[in-house]
Amino acid sequence: MPTFDAPDGTRLAYHRKGSGGDQPLVCVPGGPMTPSAYFGDLGGLAARRELVLLDLRGTGDSARPADLAGFRVDRQAEDIEALRAALGPERLDLLGHSASGDLVLAYAARYPERVRSLVLVCARARTAGIDFPVERRREALELRRDEPWYEDVRPAFERAVSGEADDADFALLDRLSYGRWDTAARTHAAACAEWFDEEAAAAYLAPGAFDGAGAARAVLTGLDAPVLVVSGELD
Asked: What DSSP designation does 51 have?
């Protein structure tokens, strides 16, 4: 298992899968702060492209930082730059999923010259000042009205919006993260619940993490790299 040192000395790990392409695709997991293991082979992509799956600090095989402030999303952008230096390419092909959309966009805004291509999969974009207001989330919920679990999830959603949700409510809301609530989805959701580090996730989103959104958006607007945005029909 290859490792490298972050700028603050935290030892971070990554995993290589597959082969193909002139350089690997660096994949950054969501959560926030979920190990990269859930990527698997990225739906078979590893059959034709080498993947580098980064375990973010404090997840998977990566060490936990001594200071909780090291989890903050904008500060973890330096971890991606340290990974690029360890791998060797001048510019990265970079994929961010879900909450790590914030992280890869923070990296692209800070190091635009180091990005060869960018893939955003069902990604957050708070780094660029874009978020999902409650109205849009409610619209996404209504797309699932015909699901057998809808009547249970709807009140749980409203309790979450009002800040009154408990663990059982959040478990119900997991259904909204999957196109099909089948055995594979249940298994994945259970694993994510085991992996979830509430302290690290809170630090990832700590005050100040998105203060530079306006400047970041200006840089990203002029990014000289192809960008692919992938979103599920029911997201």
From this structure: E
SS3 content of the chain, % helix, strand, coil (to 5): 45, 15, 40
Is there a contact between 116 and 125 (Cβ–Cβ < 8 Å)?
no
Do residues 50 and 27 touch, judged by C-beta distance below 8 A? Answer: no
Residue that is written with structure tokens 């790299």 in the block = 225
Each residue of 20-64: pLDDT tens digit? 999 999 999 998 999 999 999 999 999 999 999 999 999 999 999
48 membership: H or E segment, kind and range:
none
Own/partner pairs, 143-150, CB within 8 angstroms, 24+ separation = 143/234, 144/175, 144/176, 144/234, 147/175, 147/181, 149/175, 149/181
CATH number for the domain formed by residue range(s) 3-129+198-230: 3.40.50.1820
* Beta sheet of 3-5, edge-to-edge order: 3-5, 11-17, 51-55, 25-28, 92-97, 115-121, 227-230
pTM of the predicted model as reported, rounded to 2 decimal places? 0.92
Nearby residues of 128 by Cβ (< 8 Å), 6 or more positions away: 105, 109, 213, 216, 217, 220
